[in-house]
TrEMBL record:
Protein name: Dynein regulatory complex protein 1 C-terminal domain-containing protein
Pfam families recorded: NYD-SP28_assoc
Coiled-coil features, chain-numbered ranges: 27-72, 125-220, 496-523
Lineage: Eukaryota, Metazoa, Chordata, Craniata, Vertebrata
GO cellular component: axonemal dynein complex
Biased composition (Basic and acidic residues): 398-407
Keyword Ribonucleoprotein (UniProt): no
A Gene Ontology BP annotation from the UniProt entry: cilium-dependent cell motility
Keyword vocabulary terms for this entry: Coiled coil
Species this chain originates from: Neogobius melanostomus
Region (Disordered): 395-424
Record-annotated Dynein regulatory complex protein 1 C-terminal domain positions: 469-523
Signal peptide: none
Transmembrane residue ranges: none
Keyword Metal-binding: no
Amino acid sequence: MCRAHCRHKKIIDAIQQDLKARDDSFVVDLKKQTEELQLMLERMMEQDNTLTKAYREELEQWKETVHNEEETKRTEDQTVWEKCMKTLLDTEVEKLLKRQRAVEEFDTEIYHMIFKEYDNHDIIRNQKFEDFQNLELEIHQIETERIFIEHKIKKQKADNAKLKADESQLKAKISSFKSELTKLWVNEQTDKRRKEQQPMEQHLKELNRKSQDYERLQKKILHYVLSNTITFENMWLILDAESKELMERALYVDSTIYKEVLRMPWEPPTLSLADPGSMWEGRCAVSQASQCSQDPAIATHTDADIEGFYSEGEAEVGSTAEDGIVVTPRTVKKLMELICDEAGFLLEVKIVKLLDTLDEKERTQVKMGYLFNTLGIEEKDVPKLVSYLYKFGQPSSKDSEDVEKTGPSDSSDEAESRSSTTDTSDLIDRNDILHALICFLDQQGSNTNIADQWSVQSVEVHDMSKEEAYWESKWNVITPDKLKIWDVTNENLKRHRAVLSEISELNLEVQSLQQENTELQMVCMLLQQVCMDQPLSLSPDVTQIDME
C-alpha cells in the first residue's frame, strides 16, 4: 500500500510539473500574440491615415473637374435655350395672327347662326313656359302645406317668446335690485366717510343684512324661473309624446300600405337627430327636489361670531379638531391670517378701501366674515377647515406619528409643548393654501352640488335651432312622395270599397232570392206530396168529374 501510495504521489508530482511548464509556455505565447496584435493595429492605423489623405486629395480634384464641366455645360445650355425661345416666340406670333383671322370668320358665322337659333329658342321657350305653369301649380300646393307647418311653428315660437320675455323681466328685476343695492352701498359709504366717528360694526351689520336680502331675492327669482321652466318642459314633453303617437300611427299606416296593398318590403325611416327632450325627463324631478331643499335662510358670518371664536380660542389653552389634533389659538389665528392674505383677491375694491381705516384685528375679522360668507363656510365648519389644513400641510406618515392625540386628562406641560410644534412656520406652505381651500370646499359641497347643478341646468336657455330641426324631422317622416302614394292608394281603396259595397248588396239580394227559392222548393215538395196522396182518398164521382 505504501509503495502504491508513493507511486501515485510521484505520478501526481510529474503531472503537476508538466502543467506548470505548459502554463508558462501558454503565458509566453499569449504575450507574443498581444505584441503581434499591437503591431498589427499600429500598422492598420498608419494605412488608414495614408488612405484617407489620398482619398481626400482625389475628392478635391474630382470636385474641381466636375465644377468646370458644369460651368461649360451651363453656358452651352443657355445659348441653346435663347435660340429656342426666339424660335418659339416667332411661331407663337404667327399662330396668334392665324387665330385672330379665324376668330373674325367665326364671329360672322355666329352672327348668322344667332338669328336661326332665335326662332328655335322661341319655340322652346313656349314649351318651357307651359311646363313652368304646371310646376307653379305643384309649388302652390307645396306652399299651402308649408304655410300650415309654419303656422304651427309660429305658435311654438310665440310660446317660447313668452317664456323668454318672462326670463328677461326677471333678469331686469335682478339688475334693478343690483343697482339699488349698489346705490345703497355707495350711499352708506359716503355716510361712513362723513361720519368717521361712528362705529364700523353698524355699517357691516347693515351690509350683511342687505346681502341676505339680496340672496333671498335671488332665491325667490330662481324659484319662479324654475317653476316656469318646469311647466314649459312638462308641456313640451306632453306635446312630444302626442307627436310620437301620431308619428307611430302614420308609420303603421305606411307599413300596412306597403305590405298589404302594394306588396312591397317596408323600411322604417331613420331619424338622425337626437331627442332634445330626453335630457329634461330626469331633470324636472331633480330641479323640484332642489327647490324644496333650498332654505330661505342663508348662513352668514357676522363679526360678533368671529370675535367670539377668537375670544374662546384665547381663553382656552388648546382646542381640538374633529380628528383629535391639538391646535392652539395662535395657530388658528395664523391660519386665518394666511387665508385672508392668500384669498384677498376675492374682496372688492370698495371693501378694501373701507378696511384701510380699521385696526389690524378688526380688519382680519371683517375679512374673515366676508370670505366665509362668499365661500359658504359656517362657524361650525371652522375646526374642520383647521384640521384639514393641518393634514394638508403634513402629509407624510412620520410627521403624522409625531402629532399625538390628547384628551381632557392631558397635563398643561404637554399641551404647551404640542402648541409650540403647531405654532411653527412649517405648518403649511403659502402656495398650498388656495389648493387646500378648493379641496375642502369640494369635499363640503359634494353632497349639495348635484341638486344645484340640476337646478342651474334646468334654467339654461334652450337651443331653438335643434328643436326646430327635431320637429321638422318628425314632420318629414312621411315624405311628399309617400303622401302621393297614399293619395293613389286612398283612391284605389275607395273604388275597391265601392265595388265591395255593391258586391255586399248583391250578396244580400242573392241570399234573399236563395231563401225564396228554398221556400218555393219546400212548397213544391209539399204540393207534390199532396198530389200523390189525393187520388187514393177521393170518391169515384169526383174522379169522373175531374176526368170530364
